[in-house]
Each structure stands twice: as C-alpha cells, then as structure tokens.
Design brief:
alpha/beta; TIM Barrel; 8-stranded parallel sheet; 8 strands
Length: 295
C-alpha cells in the first residue's frame, strides 16, 4: 500500500473565460508543481471545485493530470459527498481510478450525521473503493467533526483506510489522533496555516492549497520539518504567513486562483458559481505578496 507523505497539492481546476475546462492551464499547473519538487498530487478535491464538475469533466481532468504526470508522482483522487449510495456507485463506475493510487473522501456535508453515521458511511465507502482510502475531516466546510474515536474505529475495522487529512483546527484532537493511530497510518495536515505545528507534533505531511501557488516554499517547509530543522521551517512558515492568510480571506479557491493567475500559471482567473473570483483589492494584495516572496 502506497504511503502518501510529504507535500501533496490539492490541485485547482482552471477554467477559461467562458467557464469551460482550461486544459492547457491544467497541464501548466501540473508541470509547475511537479518541477518544484512536490511529493504527490490530489485531483478533484474540494479545492478543485469538484462539486461543480460533471462526471465527464471529472474524467477529463483525471486523464489530463495522469498524462501530464507521466507516472512521476503518486496520485490521489477525490471521491466524496453526502450521498453514500452515490459515492459507492461512483467508486465502482469511475474506470479512470485505475491510474490512481488512493481515494480522498470527505465527511458528508449538510446532512450532519452523528459519529455512528460517519462510521457506517465510511465503512460502506471503504468496502466499495478499489483503492486505499484517505479520510478528510474538515468541519468548517461540512458542519460535522469526525472525532478521534471514530477515526480509531475506522483504522481498526477497515484495513483499506490508510490515512486522514485533518482540518479541524483542533490541536488537542490532533494530539489524540497521534496517540491512538495504528502503525503505518498516515496523518496529514489539511490546513496550510497549521502545517508547522501539526508536523512538529508528528504528522507526516500536508495536502496543501498553498502549494499550488508556491510549491517550492511548501516543499522546503515540509522537508525542513521532516529533517528536524525547526529553525528553517519556522523561517519559511513566517515568510508565507501573510500570503496564506490572504489566500483564504475570500474563500477557497478564489485566493489561490488569483495567485496562480498573477504569476501566469493559469490563463484566466475564473471560478464557477456560486463562487466568485477574488475582489480587485485582494487580487492586487496577493500579487504583491507573491512578488515579494524570495521562494
């Protein structure tokens, strides 16, 4: 079973001025982050605006990333939602998953299941998945927090559950996750602002939004932490702090798409409704922050 550790990138989905998939910009983005040294790619997560993509568009995005990657990095695909039966169906019908090494699946949003509901949901998803499963806990987006004891049960009862992307923002919960995790289970930060403290505690990497825009700096932060060089990691963390805050000021992926457009990695600064591009003032501030970075 492939372990996903280090710097992962939650890739955005570039759109053209008409809101259609921008294939060339997606290839440009994949090339950009790979050449900057990231460790793995995450396709069709929430940062990819996957809730607005059709099944055909998802298949095309996956195909473009696979072709541009050329087998260089491990690939993780987002397959999740709030309809368990639909996720199970997708996992069985998405033939393009054959080119991936893991599935990322978010806690169900809006429904607000209790912990037993989360357990039953992920047991069904794990049983249907043809690939190892990375759980994604992000209560700020979904309205439900998957508690440590639920994660521990899934680790024990579902051998295919191999990792957790943790974005609760609760360092005490992160501590308990570290204390109870089984050997070989991977804990990943799902919050760029907390990568340093989480990895200092024992997490093994990050699935990063920020790494779309500044992959080299994110790699340096993560590698410094993995090598025990806290002073170097602290320097990068502080240098990125203002940019990281700005990228999420008007929601994700508005900020990171503004950054990618400002540096020419993507051609158009387009999001699909109900999301809108960053305001003009925020765009200008993000561009200035990108220009000021030495990474």
């Amino acid at each position: 079973m492939k372990r996903f550790v280090g710097t992962g990138v939650a890739l955005v989905t570039p759109f053209d001025e008409n809101g259609a998939l921008d294939r060339d910009s997606l290839r440009s983005l994949v090339h950009y982050v790979i050449t900057q040294g990231v460790d793995f790619l995450v396709v069709l997560g929430t940062t990819a605006e996957s809730a607005t993509l059709t099944a055909a568009e998802k298949a095309e995005v996956a195909d473009i990333v696979v072709r541009e990657n050329q087998g260089r990095l491990p690939l993780m695909a987002g397959v999740g939602g709030n309809n368990t039966q639909e996720i199970v169906r997708e996992l069985k019908e998405y033939t393009w998953l054959k080119d991936f090494q893991a599935v990322l699946s978010i806690t169900p949003y809006y429904n607000k299941p209790n912990q037993e509901g989360l357990l039953a949901h992920f047991k069904a998803v794990a049983a249907a998945s043809p690939l190892p499963l990375c759980l994604y806990n992000v209560p700020g987006r979904t309205g439900v927090n998957m508690r440590t004891e639920t994660v521990a049960r899934l680790e024990t009862e579902c051998p295919g559950v191999m990792a957790l992307k943790e974005a609760s923002g609760d360092l005490e919960q992160a501590t308990q996750l570290l204390k109870c995790k089984r050997e070989g289970f991977t804990l990943l930060s799902g919050d760029d602002a907390l990568t340093l403290p989480l990895m200092a505690m024992g997490f093994e990497g990050v699935i990063s939004v920020l790494a779309n825009a500044v992959p080299g700096a994110c790699v340096k932060l993560v590698e410094s932490l993995r090598n025990g060089n806290l002073a170097a990691a602290r320097k990068v963390h502080l240098a990125l702090a203002d940019l990281c805050r700005a990228l999420f000021e008007e929601g994700n992926p508005a900020g990171v798409k503004a950054a990618l457009h400002a540096i020419g990695v993507i051609r158009c600064n387009t999001l699909r409704l109900p999301l809108l591009p960053a305001s003009e003032g925020l765009y200008d501030r993000i561009r200035a922050l990108m220009q000021a970075l030495s990474y």
